[in-house]
Amino acid sequence: MKKRFVIVFSIFIVFLIVFIGVFCKLNQKPVVNKIDYTVATSDLINDNATEEAKELMKYLKSIYGKKVLTGQYVNEYDDFSLPQYRVNPSDENSPSTVFKSNELQAVHSVTGKYPAVIGLDVSGLEYDAKCFTIEQAIEWHKNGGIVTICWHWNVDNFDGKGRAFYTENTKFNLKKTLKNKDSEQYKGLIKDIDAIAEQLKILQDAGVPVLWRPLHEAAGGWFWWGATGPNAYKELWNIMYDRMTNYHNLNNLIWVYNGQNPKWYVGDDKCDIVADDPYFNKDRKAYLNDSSNVKRFNQNIKTSSNKMIAMSENDFVPNVDKMFETNAKWLLFCTWCREFVCVYEEDKEGNKILTPEYSEMCSTKEELKAVYDNGNSITLDELNIYS
Predict the structure, then answer these.
(1) Is the overall model pTM greater than 0.85, yes or no?
(2) Most distant CA atoms of the chain, gap in Å
């Protein structure tokens, strides 16, 4: 009887130890793996980088691990020639201003401040579609802000169908295209890169340095540039870098890798900053469990510990206090546009119209204001890069 009791008691103790271990693990707050923020380089991969690009990179390095830059993307589909976006809406000769964008108005209405970083997109410029990104970037820079630009690249498969950037909407095969440099598809890629390069030259001539984030979210596969694997993606990255840097002499670009997987990394010699887009897919519970995005930050440390790590897109704004408590000190965040920060309304015809009213679909007003008011956050009025 005594022996049986000892066995049962021993089993109970083992189960208790296991239970406590599992419970502690489940309730353990995630923290960032050991990282030395001073190791991240401020050297640019382009030896011919403009002075403005060097100054911006030097500034980013000076705040990395100490502060976080606030950021906001602006809707690339808005027609900024409309009266509502003019400095003076009643004056047809009044210039348009990016400060009238719905997203910036929504953020300002809640926080009384503007973000340090504006996110823009050159999507459509590859085929001469209307786009106001270049003008907006110049205006933002003149007001002391930092510009980051991505490219939802609408590729032409030359099959009589429309251009597209989502994998599901095009039969374009990057891997196959790269094997045939004489194909229409390959020549089309180069032509598109050239078209975007000409637009970016305007920014270079205006003295605007750009956090250039092409071929983003590749490992996800939902964009055609990531649909055929990492090798094709890396080859396209190298082609683009060589074409823009050595052929077009674009020296105002700070190259931001956003492949979102260490296995897709282009290498420390091929990019300046590592970035990630840690969406919670509007899941508030998941966000509250990791509001500083520790898990994704750790993944990016594995990609490279020699580069600054940025949150190039997000839905919920990160909790800045948690960022510093957990050591997940992202260089910046840049909330995505449209419904992520703005309310949609229906007009008389039933069309959805974006408004400058702040949407709490993701972050609440209180959460947004807390981020912009945080002493570890930097907003537009606090930037002083070039003086």
Answers:
(1) yes
(2) 98
